[in-house]
Amino acid sequence: MPTIPPRRRLGRGGPEVSAIGYGAMGLSGVYGSADDATSQQLLNDLLDLGVNFLDTADVYGDGHNEKLISTLLAGRRDEVVLATKFGANKETGGGRPEYVRQAVEASLSRLGTDHIDLYYLHRLDRTTPIEDTVGAMGELVAEGKIRYVGLSEISAATLRRAHAVHPITAVQQEYSLFTRDLEAEVLPAVRELGASLVAYSPLGRGVLTGAFTSVADVENLEVRSQRYPRFQEGSLQRNIELTRPLRDHADALGVTPAQLALAWLLAQGPEVLPIPGSRNLDRVRANVQAADVDLAPELVAELSARFPPGAAAGERYHPDAMSRLDR
Questions:
Q1: Which has more confidence, 2 or 325?
Q2: Among residues 294, 285, 214, 281, which one has the least CA distance to residue 254?
Q3: Which terminus of the chain faces fewer neighbouring Cβ atoms within 10 Å, N or C?
Q4: Where is the NADP-dependent oxidoreductase domain (predicted)?
């Protein structure tokens, strides 16, 4: 019988979820080719490993990702705490109450389930007051279509406005040794309100895994560099070089750089839930084991000092995508 990995509470009153969750975006060809049959087996293996917190979105593969996960839910729905998102694929109007209802019905249909455990607004709709969007999401909770409300890439001020309308169970933000700006305002607000901080791209989109020792090692580099300036020429090589201290400490501890980077995130507080994604089962298994790595406070502090906010070269997204973040 496999050992159940450490669990953490989702929000103040939500379910227990695996301390390391899984972000499924990469199974829809974002970082390189992915075979559906292999992906379906990987998803089943995840549950066997004790990972019960799965994250997707309607925009991943234009619905492909949710349909892929539906095959898992068909036989193992009660083993999954399922999160999906809406509102990133519309420049304006993605937060309108009528669109919220349209989006959830479409996701429920693709996922083949009657409820979504955690439903996020993927990106703030600046044409619709957050109170209206969250009010509509609260109605979905009352109807049983969703169980908990989440927001993604949101400012502390917007989070507080939203929480005044309906409790926000989770905030999903990019968070890693490479991306720490949320520590100034968003993370304190999350703690104040009793929510969870779901950390996406916790491994710097692969750079913090130590798998890249040169630019030539990066799969699908052209696509990555178009979307993420940290993969552009010059910035990428500098970011790879930045990981040397992480690799050295990982070697000394007998863990992988990815495990060390994830353990550092978990050490930031019990409200932090990383959701790394990989198409390789061995790497997924190693990521899960990061929850068992107990770091000395001195090492946590040293890594924090080695990777201060702003250390990574390049912006997180290209300018258009950056303009859609609520900062």
A1: 325
A2: 294
A3: N
A4: 19-303
Quote the CA–CA distance of 98 and 160 in Å, as a whole number.
23
Residue that is written with structure tokens 């499924």 in the block: 24
219 contacts: CB under 8 Å, gap ≥ 6: 31, 32
CATH of the domain at 120: 3.20.20.100
What is the predicted pLDDT for the residue at 1? Answer: 42
How far is residue 25's CA from residue 48's CA, in Å, rounded to a whole number? 20
DSSP state of 89: S
- For the annotated catalytic residues, the residue numbers are 60
- Count of alpha carbons within 13 angstroms of residue 98, beta-carbon side: 1
Tokens (6 digits) for 109: 């249909």
- Report which of residues 266 and 217 the model is more confident about: 266
Range of the domain at 68: 7-322
Tally of domains in the chain: 1
Helix, strand, coil shares of the chain, percent, nearest 5, are 50, 15, 35
In 3D, which of 184, 189, 208, 188 has the Cα closest to residue 274? 208
The answer to whether the beta carbons of residues 175 and 197 sit under 8 Å apart is: yes
Between the alpha carbon of residue 35 and those of residues 41, 166, 206, 275, 279, the distances in Å are: 10, 39, 20, 21, 9
Q: What is the model's pLDDT at position 104?
A: 98
Q: Which two tokens stand for residue 1?
A: 């019988």
> Residue 1: inside a domain, yes or no?
no
For the chain, percent of residues with pLDDT exceeding 90: 87
Instruction: Judge whether 2 lies within some domain.
Output: no
Would you say residue 200 lies in a domain? yes
Task: Give the lowest-confidence range in 186-200, 214-228, 238-252, 279-293.
Answer: 214-228
Q: Which residues are CB-neighbours of 43 under 8 A, at least 6 positions away?
A: 24, 27, 54, 68, 69, 71, 72
